[in-house]
Amino acid sequence: MCKRPGSMANRKKDKEPVGYEILKDASLNKGTAFTMAERETYKLRGLLPAAVSDQDMQITRALGNVRRKAYDIERYIYLQALQARNERLFYRLIIDHIEELMPIIYTPTVGQACKEFAHIFRQPRGFYINPDDRGQIRSMLDNWPERDISLIVVTDGERILGLGDLGASGMGIPLGKLALYSACAGIPPHQCLPVMLDVGTNNETLRSDPLYLGVPRPRITGADYLALVEEFVLAVQDAYPRALIQFEDFLTPNAYGLLHTWRDRVLCFNDDIQGTAAVALAGVLASSRITGIELPDLRIMFLGAGSAATGIANLIRFALRDAGLDQQQATRRIWLVDHTGLVVKQRDDLAPQKRPYAHDAPAAGFIEAIRMVKPHVLIGATGKAAMFTEEAIRLMAELNPRPVIFALSNPTSVSECTAEQAFEWSEGRAVFASGSPFPPVSYAGKSFRPGQGNNAYIFPGIGLGAIACQASRISDEMFLDAARVLAEMVTEDDLQEGAIYPPLTDIRRASLAIAVAVAEKAWDQGLARVDRPADVEKAIADTMYDPHY
Questions:
Q1: DSSP class of residue 297?
Q2: Helices and strands: H and E segment counts in the chain
Q3: Is residue 440 scored above 70 in pLDDT?
Q4: pLDDT at residue 3 is higher than 50
Q5: What is the DSSP letter of 249?
Q6: Buried/exposed 54-68: b ≥16 CB within 10 Å, e otherwise
Q7: Roughly what angle, to the nearest 10 degrees, separates helices 276-291 and 307-322?
Q8: Are 109-266 and 273-549 equal in CATH topology?
Q9: Which one is catalytic: 177, 212, 256, 501?
Q10: What does the alpha-carbon distance between residue 288 and residue 461 come to, in Å, rounded to a whole number?
Q11: List of E strands, 220-363
């Protein structure tokens, strides 16, 4: 059978599709995998070549086509076309070859795809809202063909990865995130809605590009901006009352402002602030098994003090307090360095998210700050390449037998340093993780597998767990538990290879384990809106999308 459960009930169709209608519906199409009996039943005879190819054969063909492409952006375009043509084949291909293909459908290639979005555009995907839609957003949502929406990823395109303001071209991010939700956590694709709040762009290059697909005006700000976001959030509550909203790639002031406005009112989270925090905390926890220094004893320094860095700092401070430190002791363990220098109390230029970490200490630049603080862990979230210089890495290695170096900025082109540099400059002693993937590194006869601190380890499981228990909101404790679960999945063999995250091939297992922890926490905190099943893991696993046919 080609019908997916509930598909027609959730769509505006009066009758079952047959013939070319099925072949043009990505969620139903199996292409040459339709059996002879199915071809008869669904009026497909004559519309397909004679040979019947099972899904495994189709995977072989599709993977060959991917590998035949000369450039990653061409592979991205091919996979987008496959997703639009045969959804289940696309997801089966991604799941079976996640290590090879996740860098294509998401970071780092998605960064290039966003920059070139208007130039590689093939067909409409996702939902677009602009300032001219004020007062009509709720009725516009009725234009979306699915009624059963459980997950929304929304961006306004102002801070796409480390690439800045890409306006409506940032739609590649919600599309990529939701593909990972389905591949890594089994959220059914028809329950996912990617949204672009196209409020204009301050990127003059985009506005002057005749192919640009967004509103070619400067960004709206202030009350007009907040009113549009509010109308969107409230429209979602009416149209899809159980849907989780994930805010993605908003500029830091808006990211924090929207999170603080909505986190206690609707089911939502900000992945750049909270998801990044959880995956980084998981890496810090796992690194302690290599360094032998427990979390409460660590000194942690951040280069960068935007939404990602301060989000990580906030969750680490929360974890430190959970480990027994008081607020002042926990805060003292965390130091920030921004573009001006060390974040200290005498500065009068600090944004609100930085002020809690402003210490009573002398002003210092980056290198001077490392010498003064003597951090065990150095975390980069700058969005700028090569910020971890040889001097900085060598100094960290001088201060620590096993310096912990996290170069978390995405895509690879803006990573603070490469894996090879971290290992070479530390003489093979670094405990390294990055936001984008790096290949294995050989140094002094030893092979290292760099850990990838990718949010994909965290957000799919958060979403799956929240949806499974119909959570009313996402708590900080859920992210703390998610980080602990992920850290516990790192094996001794992983650590021996220098990896502080499990292999990507384990990501669906990790997502399920995180989902169970999140759902359990929701029930414990009274935040779940359905009864707890006898077997939580089985109940959640049974809901996960399986693309096999």
A1: G
A2: 24, 13
A3: yes
A4: no
A5: S
A6: ebeebbeebeeebee
A7: 60
A8: yes
A9: 177
A10: 24
A11: 244-247, 268-270, 300-303, 334-337
Other beta carbons less than 10 A from residue 117's beta carbon:
25
Distance CA 299, CA 333 (A): 5
Fold of 273-549: Rossmann fold (3.40.50)
Q: How far apart are CA 239 and CA 126, in angstroms?
A: 16
Q: Which of 42, 76, 91, 106 is catalytic?
A: 106
Domain locations along the chain: 109-266, 273-549
Would you give the DSSP letter of residue 3?
P
Measured in degrees and rounded to the nearest 5, phi and psi for residue 205 equal -60, -40
Instruction: Report how far apart, in Å, the C-alpha atoms of 454 and of each of 48, 77, 158, 250, 411 are.
Output: 40, 22, 21, 18, 11
Superfamily of domain 109-266: Malic enzyme, N-terminal domain (3.40.50.10380)
Determine whether 42 is an active site residue.
no
Look up 106 and say whether it is catalytic: yes
DSSP strand pairing (451-452 vs 431-434):
parallel
Q: Which position has the token pair 């990501």?
A: 507
Going edge to edge, which strands form the sheet with 404-407?
Answer: 334-337, 300-303, 377-380, 404-407, 431-434, 451-452
What's the confidence (pLDDT) of residue 419?
Answer: 97
DSSP assignment of 152-191: EEEE-SSSBTTTB--GGGGGHHHHHHHHHHHHHH---GGG
Residues 18-33 pLDDT 10s = 999 999 999 999 999 9
Of the pLDDT bands very low, low, confident and very high (cuts 50, 70, 90), residue 9 is very low
